[in-house]
Amino acid sequence: MTLIKSISGIRGTIGGKVGDNLTPVDAVKFASAYGTFLKNSIQVNRKLKVVIGRDARISGPMIHNLVVNTLVGLGIDVVDLGLSTTPTVEVAVPLENADGGIILTASHNPKQWNALKLLNAKGEFLSGAEGAQILEIADAEAFDFVDVDTLGEVFVNDSYMDIHIDEVLALPLVNSDVVKAKKYKVVVDGVNSSGGIIIPKLLEEMGVEVVKLYCEPNGHFPHNPEPLKEHLTDICNLVVAEQADFGIVVDPDVDRLAFISNDGEMFGEEYTLVAVADYVLSKTPGNTVSNLSSSRALRDITEKHNGSYQASAVGEVNVVELMKKTNAIIGGEGNGGIIYPELHYGRDSLVGVALFLTYLAGQDKTVAELRASYPHYFMSKNKIELTPQLDVDAILETLTATYKNDSSTSSLSTIDGVKIDFANEWVHLRKSNTEPIIRIYTEASTQNDADGLALRFVNELKTIAGI
């Protein structure tokens, strides 16, 4: 099966052989490497403290116990949040004055996957250089466990989902009173993970009537957990049947957010960030950042509010780095990830929901009408499965050379894979950080054009690769 070590953490499938998958041995090994990295980096005369939380996937309790007790064996205290979300752990780390955090989740990946997502003392993802250090420690197995008198302790704290909600509701641009007055009805698909607990709680605090769909946190995902249109037929139908104002879909660790309009159509995962940014920029003008695979619509909205837009390499840590460099007011990724620094530098579906509701309550529009008011771009998201024989870097270098001096190309970036901009459309091709695939994202002014551009480049890649 698969074990992937990347900027997004240590991610793999459960079971199989050590070193090829995320086995119990690998979970202990990488937890040991992370704990050792912290001890090497933070040389203080006290026990270190790490916050740990997990999503509801089936392997969660097993991986959780292994990781917690590995840190205890290194003499590190653990604040155990239990069932939680990625943004909740990110919020908890600085509130606990912890030295780091680990989220046990494979995000949008199917149930056979799990992962260790690693945080620093700010509750932000580690840099690529820090991740490389951890991999070196893991490869060398340079671990030094403590004696029985200096073992770490475990402190259970299951209050942080409520604390996270309180922190979101306290944001100056969140107005629960105006939302309550609207008496909204919203359908929530929590994909049977922790989003099925925290999103309904947030909505109820804001006076919203909630219709729950797949909100039992048992880890049995009822559909592919990536919040894409083809996976969301049930909620689209239920929004219409319930005559709801809109629907909300999150992934298993609640850092990706998608909306369903009142007519049962997708609001568009790319447009989650666009709509929230439109509201935030209308109140606090400034700059924005998203990644190279995200829609041009954010650029358009930013320029409407007289701000400056820039694109980073794919990966939350890259977006955050560029946001800090450009003093961005809001940013994120086109996969429905909202990063609002007013609370923390991490993708956060709760922040997205609360800001969107506040914005919608101030508009005399349905969600479908709001979506229609934004620039119309259409995306196609495709992928090619990788095999060990494929030299992805060489394939992309060949493609880059082909288009570098092509007269139809308006710009070309190799910051992350290769992105080729044409006059009215673009294509971005890159090796995934989280799956053994090449991603091919395209955007154009019609769906047919976006799909056609994607098919063209899928065929070009296959020709170059000889497959």
Automatic annotation (TrEMBL):
Enzyme Commission code(s) on record: 5.4.2.10
UniProt KW keywords: Isomerase, Magnesium, Metal-binding, Phosphoprotein
Domain Alpha-D-phosphohexomutase C-terminal: 401-458
Pfam families: PGM_PMM_I (PF02878), PGM_PMM_II (PF02879), PGM_PMM_III (PF02880), PGM_PMM_IV (PF00408)
Cofactor(s) the record lists: Mg(2+)
This protein's record includes keyword Endoplasmic reticulum: no
UniProt keyword Kinase present: no
Record domain Alpha-D-phosphohexomutase alpha/beta/alpha: where: 8-143, 174-264, 271-375
GO molecular function, one term: phosphoglucosamine mutase activity
Protein family per UniProt: Belongs to the phosphohexose mutase family.
Name of protein: Phosphoglucosamine mutase
Source species of the chain: Flavobacterium nakdongensis
Gene symbol of the encoding locus: glmM
